[in-house]
Structures are given as C-alpha cells and as structure tokens.
Amino acid sequence: MAEVATARRSRITPERAAELYAAVLDLLREVGYDALTMDAVAARTRSSKATLYRQWGGKAELVAKAVRHSKPGGSLDRIDTGSLKGDLHAVTMRSDDCQMEQNSALMRGLAMAVHSNPDLLRAFREHLVEPEMADFRRVIQRAVDRGEIRPDNPAIEFVMHMMVGAFAARTLIDEQPPTQAFLISYIDAVVLPALGAPTG
Amino acid sequence: MAEVATARRSRITPERAAELYAAVLDLLREVGYDALTMDAVAARTRSSKATLYRQWGGKAELVAKAVRHSKPGGSLDRIDTGSLKGDLHAVTMRSDDCQMEQNSALMRGLAMAVHSNPDLLRAFREHLVEPEMADFRRVIQRAVDRGEIRPDNPAIEFVMHMMVGAFAARTLIDEQPPTQAFLISYIDAVVLPALGAPTG
C-alpha cells in the first residue's frame, strides 16, 4: 500500500500512455465495452492492474481518455482559420474518411454502452462531450466576435446536435459512414445557414 | 405442407397483428434484437412459428413491421396543415414525451443491431426509412409548391438527417430523451432556417 500511496501519476510517460490507449481502442473494437476487462488491458499491454487503476481510476475513465486521445489533431481549439466556414471545414478535415469510418463504428458501440453504464456516461461527458462543447463554444464565440453570426441566434445552442446528428444519421439513413465530402456539404447546406453565417 | 402452402396471409386479422406487434416490441425491450427468437414470439403470443414465418418471412421483417406499426398517428402523409412549420410541428406532436422516450430507447437498440444484421438493415430500410423519407419528400414538395422553400435549396436532401440527428444527439449530448419542446425548438432554430422557410 505504501508503494501505491506514494506512486506518482507522472510515472507513466506520454509515449507509454499512447501505447496503452491504442491497446484499449483495439480491445474495444474487438470485444466492445461491456466485455472489455482491466485484466485484458493489463495482459495486452503488459502492465499491472494496480498501475492501470492508479493512473485511470477505472475502466470508464480509461476508455474515455483513450477515445479522447485518438481524436486526430487534438483539440478544436488549435483551429482558427478566420471564418466560421473555414473553422467548421477544418474540424471535418482533421479525420480522413478511413479514420471517420473507424471512429463512427467505435462511437456507435460506446453510445450504446453509455446507456447501461452510468460510470461510462460520466467519464464520456467529462472527457469527451464537455471539452468538445467548450471548443465549439469558442469557435462560435469567435464567429460572433467577427460579426459573422448574431449572438442571439437560437441555432447556436444546437451546433453540437447538428454536427453529432449528421454523423449518426448518415449511417442509419444512407447506409454509409460519414465522409469528409458529406460533412462539408452538410455544414454548407445546414449548419451555416441555420446560424445565419456566410456560406460563400 | 399442403396446409401451409394454401394458407392465406389474410388469415391474420389486423387486431391479431396488432397484438403480435405489441408482444414483439415488449420482447425487444426485454431482451434486445439479437436475443429475440421466433420461438419466444410464438410462445408469448400463443401462435405457431409456421404462422409467424408464413406471415412475416422472418424475424427482421416482423420486427421492422412491429416498429412501423407502433408509430403513433400512422403515416406522415395524413399531415397537411398548410405550412411547413405547421407540418413539422405536427410530426413532432404525434408522440407525447413518454412515447418518445420509449421510442428513443427502442430505436437506439435497433440502430446498433442493424450494423451486425444485414437482414434487419434491409427490412428497416424497406419498412421504416424509405416510407418515412417518401413522406418527408411529400411534406417538402408541398412547401416548394406553396413557394415556402426554393426547389434548389441544398438543405432539402438533409431534412431526414436533421430530424434523425436531433433525436439521436439529444440523448448523447444532453443526457435526456428528446421531448416535444426540444424538437419544436430545434425545428424552429435549425430546420426551417436551413431550408430558408418562414419561421414566424
């Protein structure tokens, strides 16, 4: 116990964490959230369960952080093209179509698991939904500051719904994973006009 | 076999079909699509498996038709309020919040099952997605004919994505089932402005 209590969280390097996250995503794709165990993660990554629990607290947090880490290009916050259209297109271009298809399958599985795992829902919100929403709010705020959209436009509160919805509906309606071309058409036809933002 | 071959599909009355559909939805909520068996449906409804297969062909078609049958108020086609805003609000008002919450849970389960069951995907498209899309196209066409929206508005092809997306994103982002109030705000803030339709 003394060793655990004094262990510093910083003992895992970013490189090692990246390896662990990649292994967690592989396991998620293979068996799904419910069947994923910390034992399997420990075995696959040759780490001890004590280390995993010390560093991540539990399965839900480990999975949420692994998914967050896999988001290409990191935070939306680094995107600042000078126009809302440019920023939203840049968001889309962070993932190529292959990554988007993989991500779509993974998120579908997790979206289901969230409904029967309150821990995962909490971790998902804390590490994925809320940071992404905060990033979107900054992108929108810059568009408001530039005068591209009115601060009282009622579509502002639905930006995430529009984007997440397009992603989810694409598979159901068109039997195709979302692609960059699809998302860019959707942004130009739906998101920018709803926000009253320049589309040209 | 002679009896099966000469049996007429019309032997099941609409009332009896409604009972069967209700039992199928109960079973779906209890065990999910993958664990649902025709044996369980036969036992629950005191019908023979031969009858079920004769009438519906298989599990996928039976489930898709049961879901379609559960849609309150039947086809969108009966809705014709004289404005696009009125029509889309009327679509939303077909289900009260309790029905919407039940429907949302059920559709979430089926949306997952579709990805590993090609039969279900086909039946889902044939009996649910395509009829609903055709209905939406008629609603939109009337709005075009009335001069409410331009026929070349690029958002027209995304009407289903906007609507389905709002439904799906609501649970993920807000941790709440979609409600009438949410959907009406979304229609007024997003769908009508994207289509360039009157919102007042």
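qc> Residues 1-8 of chain B have pLDDT under 50 and may be disordered.
qc> done
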